[in-house]
Amino acid sequence: MFALLIIIAVLVVVFLFITFHPVFGSNPSKETKTKYSSLEHYSNGTFVNQITTEMATDFRSMLPVLKEFLKGNPNRQPAQQIPIKPLQFSAQNMNQKTKVTWFGHSSLLLEIDNKRILLDPMFGKAPSPIPWFGNKRYSKELPISVEDLPQIDLVVYSHDHYDHLDYGTVKKLKSKVKRFIVPLGVSSHLVRWGVEPDNIQECNWWDEIVAAGLTLVCTPARHFSGRSLTNRNSTLWCSWVIKGQETKIYFSGDSGYGPHFKEIGEKYGPFDLTLMECGQYHKKWAAIHMMPEETVQAHLDVKGKMMIPIHWGAFTLSLHNWIDPVERAVKAANVNNVMISTPQIGETISLDDEHPRTNWWKS
User: Fold this and answer.
1) Do residues 351 and 95 lie in contact, with contact meaning Cβ atoms separated by under 8 Å?
2) pLDDT for the residue numbered 89
3) Homologous superfamily of 91-362 in CATH?
4) DSSP 8-class letter at 70
5) 148 exposed, middle or buried (CB, 10 Å; 0-12, 13-18, 19+)?
6) Which residues form the Metallo-beta-lactamase domain (predicted)?
7) What is the Cβ-side half-sphere exposure of residue 231, based on CA atoms within 13 angstroms?
8) What's residue 133's pLDDT?
9) DSSP string, 210-253
10) Helix %, strand %, coil % for the chain, to 5?
Protein backbone atom coordinates (compact mmCIF):
# COMPACT_ATOMS: atom_id res chain seq x y z
CA MET A 1 0.00 0.00 0.00
CA PHE A 2 2.80 2.39 0.92
CA ALA A 3 4.61 1.64 -2.36
CA LEU A 4 1.42 2.36 -4.31
CA LEU A 5 1.06 5.73 -2.58
CA ILE A 6 4.65 6.58 -3.49
CA ILE A 7 4.01 5.71 -7.13
CA ILE A 8 0.83 7.81 -7.19
CA ALA A 9 2.66 10.74 -5.55
CA VAL A 10 5.46 10.55 -8.13
CA LEU A 11 2.95 10.47 -11.01
CA VAL A 12 1.12 13.48 -9.56
CA VAL A 13 4.38 15.43 -9.24
CA VAL A 14 5.32 14.58 -12.84
CA PHE A 15 1.88 15.61 -14.07
CA LEU A 16 2.02 18.93 -12.21
CA PHE A 17 5.54 19.59 -13.47
CA ILE A 18 4.59 18.98 -17.10
CA THR A 19 1.36 20.96 -16.74
CA PHE A 20 2.70 24.07 -15.04
CA HIS A 21 6.42 24.41 -15.78
CA PRO A 22 6.88 27.00 -18.55
CA VAL A 23 9.65 25.01 -20.26
CA PHE A 24 6.95 22.89 -21.92
CA GLY A 25 5.42 25.96 -23.54
CA SER A 26 1.74 26.22 -24.38
CA ASN A 27 -0.61 24.64 -26.90
CA PRO A 28 -2.53 26.55 -29.58
CA SER A 29 -5.99 27.60 -28.41
CA LYS A 30 -9.19 25.84 -29.51
CA GLU A 31 -10.05 28.83 -31.69
CA THR A 32 -6.64 28.59 -33.38
CA LYS A 33 -7.01 24.86 -33.96
CA THR A 34 -10.37 25.50 -35.61
CA LYS A 35 -8.63 27.78 -38.11
CA TYR A 36 -6.10 25.05 -38.87
CA SER A 37 -8.83 22.51 -39.65
CA SER A 38 -9.20 23.71 -43.24
CA LEU A 39 -5.52 23.13 -44.04
CA GLU A 40 -4.58 20.23 -46.29
CA HIS A 41 -1.80 19.14 -43.93
CA TYR A 42 -3.94 19.21 -40.76
CA SER A 43 -6.01 16.18 -39.85
CA ASN A 44 -7.85 15.07 -36.68
CA GLY A 45 -6.38 17.87 -34.61
CA THR A 46 -2.73 17.50 -35.64
CA PHE A 47 -0.40 18.52 -38.45
CA VAL A 48 0.71 15.84 -40.90
CA ASN A 49 3.48 15.45 -43.46
CA GLN A 50 3.03 15.70 -47.22
CA ILE A 51 3.72 11.98 -47.59
CA THR A 52 3.20 9.03 -45.24
CA THR A 53 5.77 9.26 -42.46
CA GLU A 54 5.72 6.41 -39.99
CA MET A 55 7.63 6.54 -36.72
CA ALA A 56 7.41 3.08 -35.14
CA THR A 57 7.36 3.54 -31.36
CA ASP A 58 5.94 0.17 -30.31
CA PHE A 59 8.03 -2.02 -28.01
CA ARG A 60 8.88 -4.57 -30.70
CA SER A 61 10.21 -1.92 -33.06
CA MET A 62 12.11 -0.02 -30.39
CA LEU A 63 13.67 -3.03 -28.63
CA PRO A 64 16.70 -3.23 -30.98
CA VAL A 65 17.30 0.52 -30.50
CA LEU A 66 17.04 0.10 -26.72
CA LYS A 67 19.62 -2.68 -26.87
CA GLU A 68 21.94 -0.38 -28.81
CA PHE A 69 21.54 2.36 -26.21
CA LEU A 70 22.21 -0.09 -23.37
CA LYS A 71 25.27 -1.47 -25.15
CA GLY A 72 26.63 2.03 -25.50
CA ASN A 73 29.17 3.53 -27.87
CA PRO A 74 32.25 5.29 -26.45
CA ASN A 75 32.60 7.29 -29.67
CA ARG A 76 29.13 8.87 -29.49
CA GLN A 77 30.76 12.00 -28.07
CA PRO A 78 34.24 13.54 -28.31
CA ALA A 79 36.98 12.16 -26.10
CA GLN A 80 38.05 15.73 -25.33
CA GLN A 81 36.57 19.20 -25.56
CA ILE A 82 36.17 20.32 -29.15
CA PRO A 83 37.70 23.59 -30.37
CA ILE A 84 35.57 26.68 -30.86
CA LYS A 85 36.38 30.10 -32.27
CA PRO A 86 35.40 33.06 -30.07
CA LEU A 87 33.06 35.44 -31.84
CA GLN A 88 33.23 39.20 -31.42
CA PHE A 89 31.14 41.97 -32.91
CA SER A 90 31.98 45.55 -33.80
CA ALA A 91 30.62 48.24 -36.07
CA GLN A 92 32.97 46.91 -38.76
CA ASN A 93 31.31 43.47 -38.70
CA MET A 94 28.37 44.62 -40.79
CA ASN A 95 28.81 45.04 -44.52
CA GLN A 96 27.13 43.99 -47.74
CA LYS A 97 28.78 40.57 -47.75
CA THR A 98 26.62 37.61 -46.79
CA LYS A 99 28.18 35.77 -43.85
CA VAL A 100 27.24 32.77 -41.76
CA THR A 101 28.44 31.64 -38.35
CA TRP A 102 27.69 28.16 -37.02
CA PHE A 103 27.13 27.69 -33.28
CA GLY A 104 26.91 23.91 -33.46
CA HIS A 105 23.89 21.69 -34.11
CA SER A 106 21.34 23.77 -36.11
CA SER A 107 22.01 27.18 -34.57
CA LEU A 108 23.38 29.75 -37.01
CA LEU A 109 23.80 33.47 -37.44
CA LEU A 110 23.20 34.89 -40.92
CA GLU A 111 24.40 38.37 -41.80
CA ILE A 112 22.73 39.39 -45.04
CA ASP A 113 21.91 42.82 -46.49
CA ASN A 114 23.13 44.42 -43.26
CA LYS A 115 20.64 42.39 -41.22
CA ARG A 116 21.33 39.77 -38.55
CA ILE A 117 19.21 36.62 -38.43
CA LEU A 118 19.45 33.80 -35.91
CA LEU A 119 18.28 30.40 -37.11
CA ASP A 120 17.07 27.94 -34.44
CA PRO A 121 19.17 29.56 -31.70
CA MET A 122 19.69 26.93 -29.00
CA PHE A 123 22.31 28.17 -26.56
CA GLY A 124 21.38 25.98 -23.59
CA LYS A 125 23.61 23.35 -21.98
CA ALA A 126 21.45 20.39 -23.01
CA PRO A 127 18.47 19.80 -25.34
CA SER A 128 16.14 18.73 -22.57
CA PRO A 129 13.37 20.18 -20.39
CA ILE A 130 15.57 19.21 -17.42
CA PRO A 131 19.09 20.20 -18.59
CA TRP A 132 20.98 18.36 -15.87
CA PHE A 133 19.52 15.07 -17.19
CA GLY A 134 20.20 15.70 -20.88
CA ASN A 135 23.23 15.02 -23.05
CA LYS A 136 25.44 18.00 -22.37
CA ARG A 137 26.85 20.31 -25.03
CA TYR A 138 30.27 19.13 -26.18
CA SER A 139 31.83 22.57 -25.75
CA LYS A 140 31.53 24.01 -22.26
CA GLU A 141 31.37 27.50 -23.70
CA LEU A 142 29.70 29.10 -26.71
CA PRO A 143 31.54 31.29 -29.22
CA ILE A 144 29.69 34.23 -27.65
CA SER A 145 27.31 34.62 -24.73
CA VAL A 146 23.71 35.61 -25.33
CA GLU A 147 24.35 38.75 -23.28
CA ASP A 148 27.11 39.84 -25.67
CA LEU A 149 25.10 39.35 -28.85
CA PRO A 150 24.22 42.55 -30.72
CA GLN A 151 20.70 43.52 -31.73
CA ILE A 152 19.09 40.75 -33.78
CA ASP A 153 16.72 41.69 -36.59
CA LEU A 154 15.04 38.29 -36.92
CA VAL A 155 14.93 35.00 -35.07
CA VAL A 156 13.63 32.21 -37.28
CA TYR A 157 12.55 28.81 -35.92
CA SER A 158 11.92 25.59 -37.85
CA HIS A 159 9.95 23.73 -35.14
CA ASP A 160 9.48 23.42 -31.39
CA HIS A 161 11.76 20.55 -30.33
CA TYR A 162 14.13 21.19 -27.42
CA ASP A 163 17.29 21.05 -29.54
CA HIS A 164 15.93 23.92 -31.67
CA LEU A 165 13.55 25.97 -29.51
CA ASP A 166 15.09 26.48 -26.07
CA TYR A 167 13.19 28.10 -23.21
CA GLY A 168 16.26 29.55 -21.49
CA THR A 169 17.63 30.97 -24.72
CA VAL A 170 14.37 32.73 -25.56
CA LYS A 171 14.15 34.24 -22.06
CA LYS A 172 17.65 35.71 -22.40
CA LEU A 173 17.35 36.67 -26.05
CA LYS A 174 13.89 38.19 -26.38
CA SER A 175 14.90 41.74 -25.42
CA LYS A 176 17.49 41.80 -28.24
CA VAL A 177 15.17 40.59 -31.01
CA LYS A 178 13.05 42.81 -33.23
CA ARG A 179 10.91 40.00 -34.65
CA PHE A 180 10.37 36.24 -34.32
CA ILE A 181 9.32 34.25 -37.41
CA VAL A 182 7.87 30.81 -36.68
CA PRO A 183 5.71 28.05 -38.22
CA LEU A 184 2.05 27.77 -37.21
CA GLY A 185 1.35 27.24 -33.53
CA VAL A 186 4.86 27.94 -32.24
CA SER A 187 3.93 31.45 -31.13
CA SER A 188 1.96 29.89 -28.25
CA HIS A 189 5.25 28.86 -26.65
CA LEU A 190 6.90 32.24 -27.17
CA VAL A 191 3.96 34.18 -25.77
CA ARG A 192 3.99 32.06 -22.60
CA TRP A 193 7.68 32.89 -22.25
CA GLY A 194 7.09 36.63 -22.39
CA VAL A 195 7.56 37.53 -26.05
CA GLU A 196 5.13 40.20 -27.18
CA PRO A 197 2.57 38.77 -29.63
CA ASP A 198 3.06 41.78 -31.92
CA ASN A 199 6.71 40.76 -32.32
CA ILE A 200 5.85 37.29 -33.64
CA GLN A 201 4.78 36.29 -37.13
CA GLU A 202 3.48 32.78 -37.84
CA CYS A 203 3.67 31.14 -41.26
CA ASN A 204 2.10 28.21 -43.01
CA TRP A 205 3.85 26.13 -45.67
CA TRP A 206 4.41 28.17 -48.83
CA ASP A 207 3.68 31.50 -47.15
CA GLU A 208 5.93 34.26 -48.49
CA ILE A 209 6.57 37.22 -46.21
CA VAL A 210 8.82 40.26 -46.13
CA ALA A 211 10.58 40.92 -42.82
CA ALA A 212 13.53 43.25 -42.12
CA GLY A 213 13.66 43.92 -45.86
CA LEU A 214 14.24 40.23 -46.65
CA THR A 215 11.90 37.75 -48.31
CA LEU A 216 11.26 34.59 -46.31
CA VAL A 217 9.33 31.55 -47.51
CA CYS A 218 8.06 28.93 -45.09
CA THR A 219 8.61 25.67 -46.97
CA PRO A 220 7.71 22.06 -46.10
CA ALA A 221 9.84 19.59 -44.17
CA ARG A 222 9.24 15.95 -43.27
CA HIS A 223 9.33 15.78 -39.50
CA PHE A 224 7.10 16.18 -36.42
CA SER A 225 6.70 18.44 -33.39
CA GLY A 226 5.85 18.49 -29.70
CA ARG A 227 7.33 19.37 -26.31
CA SER A 228 5.20 17.26 -23.99
CA LEU A 229 3.55 13.85 -23.71
CA THR A 230 0.21 15.09 -25.01
CA ASN A 231 0.90 17.62 -27.78
CA ARG A 232 2.57 15.62 -30.55
CA ASN A 233 2.22 17.49 -33.87
CA SER A 234 0.13 20.30 -32.38
CA THR A 235 2.46 22.83 -34.07
CA LEU A 236 3.88 22.93 -37.59
CA TRP A 237 7.47 22.14 -38.65
CA CYS A 238 9.15 23.63 -41.69
CA SER A 239 12.23 24.59 -43.64
CA TRP A 240 12.99 28.15 -44.81
CA VAL A 241 13.98 30.02 -47.94
CA ILE A 242 15.72 33.33 -47.19
CA LYS A 243 16.21 35.77 -50.06
CA GLY A 244 18.28 38.93 -49.91
CA GLN A 245 19.08 41.39 -52.66
CA GLU A 246 21.73 39.16 -54.22
CA THR A 247 21.86 36.00 -52.07
CA LYS A 248 19.47 33.11 -51.66
CA ILE A 249 19.80 30.63 -48.77
CA TYR A 250 17.97 27.42 -47.87
CA PHE A 251 17.71 26.20 -44.27
CA SER A 252 16.45 22.62 -44.03
CA GLY A 253 15.41 22.54 -40.38
CA ASP A 254 14.89 18.88 -39.41
CA SER A 255 13.64 16.61 -42.15
CA GLY A 256 13.60 13.14 -43.54
CA TYR A 257 14.29 12.87 -47.24
CA GLY A 258 11.26 13.43 -49.46
CA PRO A 259 9.92 14.94 -52.69
CA HIS A 260 9.53 18.36 -51.05
CA PHE A 261 13.19 19.12 -51.72
CA LYS A 262 12.76 18.91 -55.50
CA GLU A 263 9.54 20.92 -55.22
CA ILE A 264 11.37 23.66 -53.31
CA GLY A 265 14.23 23.57 -55.81
CA GLU A 266 11.85 23.98 -58.73
CA LYS A 267 10.01 26.89 -57.10
CA TYR A 268 12.85 28.79 -55.44
CA GLY A 269 16.22 27.39 -56.52
CA PRO A 270 19.01 27.69 -57.24
CA PHE A 271 20.49 28.59 -53.82
CA ASP A 272 23.87 30.15 -53.14
CA LEU A 273 24.05 28.28 -49.83
CA THR A 274 22.18 25.41 -48.20
CA LEU A 275 22.28 24.66 -44.48
CA MET A 276 21.38 20.98 -44.44
CA GLU A 277 20.63 18.58 -41.60
CA CYS A 278 23.01 15.60 -41.60
CA GLY A 279 23.24 14.23 -38.06
CA GLN A 280 21.37 12.38 -35.28
CA TYR A 281 20.08 9.80 -37.72
CA HIS A 282 19.17 6.12 -37.34
CA LYS A 283 17.62 3.63 -39.75
CA LYS A 284 14.62 3.34 -37.39
CA TRP A 285 13.79 7.04 -37.78
CA ALA A 286 15.05 7.64 -41.33
CA ALA A 287 11.63 9.04 -42.24
CA ILE A 288 12.23 12.11 -40.05
CA HIS A 289 16.04 12.51 -40.13
CA MET A 290 18.11 12.16 -43.28
CA MET A 291 21.13 9.95 -43.63
CA PRO A 292 24.18 12.05 -44.65
CA GLU A 293 24.08 10.72 -48.20
CA GLU A 294 20.45 11.82 -48.44
CA THR A 295 21.55 15.23 -47.14
CA VAL A 296 23.79 15.68 -50.17
CA GLN A 297 21.03 14.48 -52.49
CA ALA A 298 18.59 16.96 -50.90
CA HIS A 299 21.16 19.72 -51.53
CA LEU A 300 21.22 18.70 -55.19
CA ASP A 301 17.42 18.53 -55.29
CA VAL A 302 17.00 22.12 -54.10
CA LYS A 303 19.72 23.20 -56.57
CA GLY A 304 22.25 24.35 -54.02
CA LYS A 305 25.70 25.68 -54.87
CA MET A 306 27.52 25.32 -51.54
CA MET A 307 26.41 23.23 -48.56
CA ILE A 308 27.18 23.47 -44.85
CA PRO A 309 26.20 20.31 -42.92
CA ILE A 310 24.36 21.07 -39.67
CA HIS A 311 22.52 19.22 -36.86
CA TRP A 312 25.76 17.70 -35.59
CA GLY A 313 28.80 18.75 -33.55
CA ALA A 314 27.07 19.97 -30.38
CA PHE A 315 24.98 17.21 -28.79
CA THR A 316 24.58 13.45 -28.86
CA LEU A 317 21.01 12.51 -29.76
CA SER A 318 21.59 9.27 -31.65
CA LEU A 319 23.85 6.19 -31.56
CA HIS A 320 26.34 6.88 -34.34
CA ASN A 321 29.90 8.10 -33.75
CA TRP A 322 29.78 11.83 -33.24
CA ILE A 323 31.96 12.53 -36.32
CA ASP A 324 30.15 10.10 -38.64
CA PRO A 325 27.64 12.69 -39.97
CA VAL A 326 30.22 15.14 -41.27
CA GLU A 327 32.59 12.48 -42.59
CA ARG A 328 29.81 10.69 -44.47
CA ALA A 329 28.48 14.01 -45.79
CA VAL A 330 31.95 15.07 -47.00
CA LYS A 331 32.47 11.71 -48.70
CA ALA A 332 29.09 11.88 -50.44
CA ALA A 333 29.75 15.50 -51.45
CA ASN A 334 33.06 14.53 -53.04
CA VAL A 335 31.43 11.69 -54.97
CA ASN A 336 28.75 14.07 -56.29
CA ASN A 337 31.07 17.03 -56.95
CA VAL A 338 29.24 19.13 -54.36
CA MET A 339 30.95 22.15 -52.85
CA ILE A 340 30.86 21.61 -49.07
CA SER A 341 32.17 23.81 -46.28
CA THR A 342 32.89 22.53 -42.75
CA PRO A 343 33.57 25.53 -40.51
CA GLN A 344 34.46 25.19 -36.85
CA ILE A 345 31.92 26.22 -34.27
CA GLY A 346 32.14 30.01 -34.04
CA GLU A 347 33.92 30.40 -37.37
CA THR A 348 32.41 33.05 -39.64
CA ILE A 349 32.59 32.48 -43.37
CA SER A 350 31.73 34.87 -46.16
CA LEU A 351 30.02 33.59 -49.28
CA ASP A 352 32.37 35.80 -51.32
CA ASP A 353 35.55 34.25 -49.89
CA GLU A 354 37.26 30.87 -49.96
CA HIS A 355 35.40 28.42 -47.76
CA PRO A 356 36.98 26.29 -45.00
CA ARG A 357 37.27 22.54 -45.56
CA THR A 358 39.48 21.59 -42.63
CA ASN A 359 38.95 18.32 -40.78
CA TRP A 360 38.97 20.16 -37.44
CA TRP A 361 37.07 17.36 -35.69
CA LYS A 362 40.13 15.09 -36.05
CA SER A 363 42.58 17.44 -34.37
Assistant:
1) no
2) 80
3) Ribonuclease Z/Hydroxyacylglutathione hydrolase-like (3.60.15.10)
4) H
5) exposed
6) 116-312
7) 22
8) 73
9) EETTEEEEEE--S----SSSS-TTSS---EEEEE-SS-EEEE--
10) 30, 20, 50
